[in-house]
Amino acid sequence: MPHVTFTATLRRHLDAPPAEVPGATVREALEAAFRGNPRLRGYVLDDQGRLRKHVAVFVDGALVTDRDGLADPVRPGSGIHVMQALSGG
After folding, report:
1. 20 to 30 Å CA-CA from 64: which of 39, 49, 56, 75?
2. For residues 36 and 53, is the Cβ–Cβ distance under 8 A?
């Protein structure tokens, strides 16, 4: 199963521990992770189910290419890293 990890910035606001989740695509894996904490979905996805502009998702070190459908494939053992951009000065 893919392994989903959320950045410490998200974990500061929500319970989002690393998790092994089922799924053959990024969307399936993220939806499985959101079942454990539905509030997390709102931090990662917008109302249309697309990645929020300030969120980046990497699969095995490569940035996902389908930010709208999240159809990028994942394999058993894939590492999915969800990161939130930081801003400030």
Report:
1. 39
2. no
